[in-house]
Amino acid sequence: MSAICKPNCVTALPNFGAIDDCDITKRLTSGEIAKVVFVKCNMEVTDIDDDLEWETNISNGLVTIPFVGNGKIDEQSEAGEMRIGCQTVSTICNKPFEFGSPIVDTDAETEWSLYNDIQKSKLGLTVLFITCDGIALINPDWVSGQNPGLPFSKLKISQIFTGEADSKMMYKINGEISECRSLKRVKLSADTLEILSSTNTGS
Amino acid sequence: MYELTFEINGKKITKSAKTEKEVKRLVYVYVNGSQQEKDALVSDIVSKKEADKLNDLIKPKNKKEDVSNL
């Protein structure tokens, strides 16, 4: 640890304050990702919780939402370390995420092509997530008029056949978000969730 | 009921909140900045509402006085 102290670097420390924790379970929220949402990287969103705006963006082909599944965002890794002012500073920070869905289009067998289209478009996409509690995880810098998605540094889509008896084929999306900070958590209204959930599920 | 209008980057968003907690949640979603800045905004909104409530309570009282003066 450096002996150099720079109190000016602390402008305002957060105050977590007191919270009513008598009912512990009320204070917990889902850590499970139910949906992964890819948006065009220049798509601007005025109101993140406006169902009509999402509907318009979806109709305009700016949003793609793979079938519902299960996913997670893992602990971030830091790299590109440099020694500056007697401290080790990481210049690269990535949060790995993965998402898998066993749902396929058994009517027309078309979903493979859709996943390939995402793969092909990856340089023009950003990603956001929806948890099982209906919370959107978006760019921490998002304000009205900006893209809510997170830029990613890696995206891999795999079609998995396990070869085991009675196993089901599935699609797995692995990637890394280039963001060190915690993601902005936005509780979505039922109307917005309905729009984001009904898309691409065939329902 | 609180009526909130956020104007950022020339875009206007109007939201309503029933409680102070909802006001705080909306401010944290639609406004960027430090905790102190966001909490100050929440306090402003809540105290303005309180002041409006107080004004509403005072107004009928004045009316009554006017009537009695007649």
What's the number of helices of chain B? 2
The whole-angstrom Rg of chain A is 20 Å
Number of strands of chain B: 2
Strand order of the largest sheet of chain A: 2-1-6-7-10
- Reading the helices and strands of chain B in chain order gives EEHH
* Unreliable parts of chain B: none
Number of strands of chain A: 10
- Share of helical residues of chain B: 55-70%
Shape estimate of chain A: globular
Low-confidence stretches of chain A: none
Output the helix-strand order of chain A: EHEEEEHEEEEEH
Give an account of the 3D structure.
The complex is a heterodimer of chains A (203) and B (70). Chain A has 203 residues and is an alpha+beta fold. Chain A has three helices and ten strands. Chain A has one domain. Chain A has helices at 51-59, 111-120, 190-198, and strands at residues 33-40, 63-64, 70-73, 77-84, 87-101, 125-131, 135-138, 152-160, 170-177, 184-187. In chain A, the strands form two sheets. Chain A has a five-stranded antiparallel beta sheet with strand order 2-1-6-7-10. In chain A, strands 3, 4, 5, 8 and 9 form a five-stranded antiparallel beta sheet that branches. The longest helix of chain A is centred in the middle third of the chain and has 10 residues, at 111-120. The N and C termini of chain A lie far apart (56 Å). The mean pLDDT of chain A is 92. Chain B has one domain. Helix content of chain B is 66%, strand content 20%. Chain B has a two-stranded antiparallel ribbon with strand order 1-2. In chain B, strand 1 (2-8) and strand 2 (11-17) form a beta hairpin. In chain B, helix 1 (20-30) packs across helix 2 (35-69). Chain B starts with a strand and ends with a helix. The interface between A and B is medium-sized, with 16 and 14 residues.
